[in-house]
Amino acid sequence: MSQDAKIPFVDLVTPHRELQEELVDVFKAALATAGFIGGPMVEGFEREFALYCDAKHSVGVSSGTDALRFALSAAGVNPGDVVLTVPLTFIATTEAISQAGARPDFVDIDARTYTMDPEKLRQYLQTQCVFDPATRRLVHRTLGKPVTAVVPVHLYGQMADMDPILEMAERYNLAVIEDACQAHGAEYFSKKENCWRKAGSMGRAAAFSFYPGKNLGACGEGGAVTTDDEAIARKVRMFRDHGQSKKYYHDVEGYNGRLDAIQAGILRVKLKHLARWNESRREHARKYNELFAAAEANIIPPFEAPWSKAVYHLYVLQVENREAVQADLAKEKIDTGIHYPVPLHLQKAYSGLGYKHGAFPVCEKAAERIVSLPMFPGLSEADQARVVHAVVRSAKYTGPQNVLVV
């Protein structure tokens, strides 16, 4: 790519061009069989994705939002329950909680990983809740509602610190549902089990999104639930298909939340390349880190915890005067993003929860400074060098006298 060419935030054209013949074959097979809903394409992808995630079951659904909603309901979250998650995530996380009939509430993040801080979770459970040993249920002191689940978000491609979260969940009888929508293939080293565990294999269930820009993306919408619990998998299959246990027999009131066969076939083709694509992202992250380490600028690069094998769905750093930095990069024809500029507890949609500025200071401080740089498997070293040069030059200009505090 020439020095004057635009550097996109993500490249969705090249991988589809490279796989065009295989992807067209998927479409031809669907046309030849009229197998557009369910059938071998969906079943084949579910089987292979479960194997990839080291899970016993995978159930394809229409989106990551539906995946999380169905997983919560299938795991026993009831209307009126309180479900805990983080305020730094896409709104789909809390939408799924609300749509399952529950009330979302928040735990602040770790300043380095941007994922749920286990110590803050511990404080919440011990100070804001009362545990009834007779019923083995937590009850929120103020709301008087049962707290029944935790949704740790594996943000930007890095898993949350799962061992302590799972330990607390077991102690207080909470269902852990992983939001793995940005973490296809990410891994966590469990000291308790003394082994690496895949995203989607550690909680009662997990939700994945196959939105086109994800590490494993469809050519449209799609999602999946992974679980080792056969009862959860069975319930999710019913929820996605109007509550049917078999055709025209509706055990529960469900939804129209199925994964299209063509999308499943496309995902099945792409799944073969996911490990290679993820390793390319990891290499690009290492290169970014190396280039930023050699520069003298007021920048905080991503932190990859020692227990983590992140897959860098996004490469997110912190800078002062973010808007000025973004404007400078735009002048250099370099696309950037912000994930996410307004924490969920401060969104108008959740004003009814009553939170104000300062409620979750770590999240709020990060949200003011984070910026996402171009990250995709085909990103060249020359383009990375150009991105880093532009960031460093802008960061030095806009605020070298200020020291970031995390």
Explain what you see.
This protein is an alpha+beta fold. The protein folds into 2 domains: 14-271, 3-Layer(aba) Sandwich (Aspartate Aminotransferase, domain 2), CATH 3.40.640; 274-398, Aspartate Aminotransferase, domain 1 (Alpha-Beta Complex). Helices cover 37% and strands 17% of the residues. It contains 13 helices and 17 strands. It has helices at residues 14-18, 20-33, 40-52, 64-74, 92-99, 118-127, 162-172, 230-240, 261-271, 274-293, 322-331, 361-367, 381-398; strands at residues 57-61, 82-85, 103-106, 129-132, 137-140, 146-150, 175-179, 187-190, 195-198, 205-209, 223-227, 244-246, 249-250, 299-300, 308-309, 315-319, 370-373. Strands 1, 2, 3, 4, 5, 6, 7, 10 and 11 form a 9-stranded mixed beta sheet that branches. Strand 4 (129-132) and strand 5 form a beta hairpin. The longest helix is centred in the last third of the chain and has 20 residues, at 274-293. The protein is globular, with a radius of gyration of 22 Å.
